[in-house]
Each structure stands twice: as structure tokens, then as C-alpha cells.
Amino acid sequence: xxxxxxxxxxxxxxxxxxxxxxxxxxxxxxxxxxKLAQSTKDSHNKDVLRSIARDELKHHDFWRQYTDRDVxxxxxxxxxxxxxxxxxxxxFGMKLxxxxxxxxxxxxxxxxxxxxxxxxxxxxxxxxxxxxxDLIDEERLRYVGSIVLGLNDALxxxxxxxxxxxxxxxxxxxxxxxxxxTGIAAxxxxxxxxxxxxxxxxxxxxxxxxxxxxxxxYVLTVLFLISPYLLLSDLYYCLGCTILNAIVxxxxxxxxxxxxxxxxxxxxxxxxxxxxxxVAALSFGVGFLIRVLFDVEI
Length: 298
Description:
Number of helices: 11
Oligomer: single chain
Shape: elongated
Structural class: mainly alpha
Order of helices and strands: EEHHHHHHHHHHH
Helix content: over 70%
Strand order of the largest sheet: 1-2
């Protein structure tokens, strides 16, 4: 097989292919960081993003010395991570991208013995992780506790309420109405509590914004959970879809938090799912007992 020689370094074809992939990844990430730097208004965040972009370009140039070839960036990946960062926040988008970079670091380690200086590239990649931790002060992450409060309460309370109402009322539209009233009333209560709680703290958060985030998270979760009762007629199919919706909501939000906050996904997902489904099961039983005790038929 042909090999590439530079400054006494012999590279076989397989290693050279790996370097071309690494070179393309670095160029792609350089462009992503530059685009994010151009779109952010915060001067500190802009400077850090451009600093990382310059590092990525240096890494690209470093690998090019050995591949002796130009590469094209991955255009789809550029737009993918740029759009994700704009919609879900720069911190989430970049950390999601850095997870892919973790896989690239494993490839770097396989060629450390072949290429002098590769260790420096790897060290730069690890430095990126440290920079990202303190990189951005995004409003959505500052108020993530308020969002979690609204989401968790809605998942636990309304999943349980809908399970109990399903057995007690035996009418999909009636259950949807009762669930909506319960959910909206609870969201206003939670928003008010979060306002008073945030106002008594000294964390620099705006109490009004915190209450809005909590209330909005609660209402959106309520709408998502009751939607099967508005669209379907079979009660138990509605309940099954509601539980599925709860699991989807838990998994999506847990994934977001696990990436943005570096929290283990499995443990947090298991805890939230166990609590929500456990309460739903208990409420289903309570609904059955109430129906029997009061001898209600609807």
C-alpha cells in the first residue's frame, strides 16, 4: 500500500484516510463556530467562539501537512448544528457537536504514536470542553430550573389525574375538559408560587420571567398530555397514548438537559419516568376505588 512520508513520519493509507476525516471535521467545525460568532450579540461569547474557530482552523492546517490534500466541509453538518444552536441555544448545539468531537478524539489517540504533535491537538480539544463550560450565559439555561419545575409537576400531576379520571368518568371529552381545567388552574398556581419563590431568592433571576417559564412549560405539557382525549374516542387507547406522550416529553427534555448541563441521561430519565408512571398507576387505582365507592356510572 502507498504511504505518505513527511519529516520522517510514515503514514499508511488507512491512517491517511483517518486524517482526511479529521481534517474535514475540523474545517466544518471552524465554519460552524464562525457562523455562531457572527450571529451572537454578546461580545464575550463572540470572542470565545472566534477563539475556538481559530483553533479548529489550526487543527485543520495541522492535519493538512500530512494529508497534503484540500478537503470540503460537510455542508449538511454546518447547517444542522447552526440551526440547532439557533433554535435550542448555542450551548446545547455546541455541546451536541462536541459529543461528536469526543468520538474524533478516540480516532486521534489511535494515531498519536504515528504523528508528532497530535497530542497537542488532542489537548486543544480537551481545552475546548473547559471553555464551553463557562462559555455562554443563556437566558433559557438560567431559567431551566423554572422550566423543569413546570414540566415535572405537569407530568406527575396531570398524568396521574388523567389516569384517575379515565376510570372515574368514562368519557373522553369530559376527561379532556376536566384535565384542561385542572391543568390550567395548576399552571397558574405553579407560576404564582415560582414568582414568590424567585422573588425571595438572590440569584439574579427575574421573578416575572421565572413564573412565565414555569407556567408556559406546565401549559404546553398539559396540552400535549390531553391531546389524545381530544383526538381519540377509546378511553384506554387515550390513556396509553397519554402515557406514551409523557415518556416522549420526559426523554426529549432529559436529553436536552443532559447535553446542556452535562447531566447523566439514564439516571435522570429513569427517575422522572418512574415517578410519573408510578403516580399514574396509583391514580388509576384511586379512580377505580372512587367509582366503586360512590357507585358512579357516566
